[in-house]
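Researcher: Good morning. I'm working through a list of sequences from a screen, and I'd like to move beyond sequence-only analysis. For each chain I'm collecting a predicted structure so we can compare shapes side by side. This is the next one on the list. No need for commentary yet; just the structure.
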Amino acid sequence: MAGVVVSGAQVSYISQDCEEIPEFLGRKYGHMAKRLDLSFNLLRSLEGLKTFSYLEELILDNNLLGNDLLLPRLPHLHTLTLNKNQISLESLLDHLAEVVPSLQYLSLLGNIACPNELVCKEKDEDDYQRYRYFVLHKLTNLKFLDTRKVTTREREEALIRGAFMKVVKPKDAKASSAAAPASPEMHYTPLPSGSRDLTNHRGVLGKCRYIYYGKHSEGNRFIQDDQL
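Model: Good morning. Structure tokens for this chain:
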């Protein structure tokens, strides 16, 4: 078939502008393919993967896959790259944990899911590290995430704090202020009610419990009797 490159158990169907996996790919190669490369297409659905039950590596870079991404159960898949798609972390990780239990190598660079400072200037290394802890908390068998090997320290941190490391994008400040209810206007004043009317200025008098004689004043220590 035009556009298909086969080498042993490796099948490539790259840059064909397809929006879904052609039926003939699964029919002809699904029973033997261990590595499938579908990069640089326009894929929005992975429904055609159902016949590729022996896959070990799946390359889906540079497509249009979004949050509705659904993979069939692929028990032998250990490598998955989803670079430069339109994926966030909302449900992806739980889905992967369920359908690809043998996954060890995952790359999500270039997606909303991955707050990498190389592709998003608003993110920094701390954002990216928190993302790694969160992913490793969900996918405990990973050995490589994006371009980095998973370290022992990362795995330990993910176990302890990973569940709390989800990177959340703050809401727009203007939208938040517009949506927030206006605070009730406060009319508190420490003055008695009798002195609050601005058109009727009056002094407020009251009795004081203390009488000051001045004998404990700091200044009085330096005043001589003849100076009084």
